[in-house]
Amino acid sequence: MVFLSLSGAVLAGGKGERMASQDKGLLLFRGEVMALSVGLALRQVTDCVFINANRNSERYADLGFEVIADDHFYQDKGPLSGLAACLTFAKTSHLLVSPCDTPCISGDAFTKLIFASNAFPDRIHYLSDAFGSHPLHAILPVEPALIMLKDFLDKSERHSVMAFYEVFGCESVLWDKSEELLNVNTPDVLS
């Protein structure tokens, strides 16, 4: 078995367009800040957890995590901007990522990704369930993914996470607890 060194990143760099431009990661879900819920789940599997955010960085830092922003060179390329920033910042062999608006995610889900990555450490692994793919719940090999992502962003007009994963080489990992993958990105789901 390969030994992976792990860090974890909460992706909170979006514009919150479906949430009336509110910073989703700082909103409360069941009484807890969503980014904190995700960060604590990541902390179940790694001590090195940080948040990728492009606004309200002081408020995110108050949650107890280091905060990094997107590199200006790769801004406005959707979630791939955040992935590029996180891969650049990570000092480990592998990086776990999770979006800030999935506050029900558990450490067990990340453990399953780690197990898959131990078997095939050179590939990107992401969660899927009966309803589809969840590419932002993923584990990536840091150095090769960063090299290929920079090249992908420089050459591609498509800023699709799955398009990048397919170019790199990826595998889905079935997670049958769909309730943990609840995406809280509109006000009606939040309430």
Fold and architecture overview:
With 191 residues, the protein is α/β, with parallel strands linked by helices. It has seven helices and nine strands. It has helices spanning 34-43, 57-61, 79-89, 107-119, 142-155, 161-168, 187-190; strands at residues 6-12, 28-29, 32-33, 49-53, 66-68, 94-99, 124-129, 132-141, 170-174. The strands form two sheets. The protein has a seven-stranded mixed beta sheet with strand order 5-4-1-6-8-7-9, sandwiched between helices. It has a two-stranded antiparallel sheet with strand order 2-3. Strand 2 (28-29) and strand 3 form a beta hairpin. 41% of the residues are buried.
In short:
The protein has helices at about 35-45, 55-60, 80-90, 105-120, 140-155, 160-170, 185-190; strands at about 5-10, 30, 30-35, 50-55, 65-70, 95-100, 125-130, 130-140, 170-175.
Structural class: alpha/beta
Uncertain spans: none
Number of strands: 9
Mean pLDDT: 92
How much helicity do the residues have?
25-40%
First-last Cα distance: 44 Å
Order of helices and strands: EEEHEHEHEHEEHHEH
Give the neighbour order of strands across the main sheet. Answer: 5-4-1-6-8-7-9
Q: DSSP strand (E) fraction?
A: 15-25%
Helical region count? 7
Shape descriptor reads: globular
Top keywords for this entry?
alpha/beta, 9 strands, globular, two-stranded antiparallel ribbon
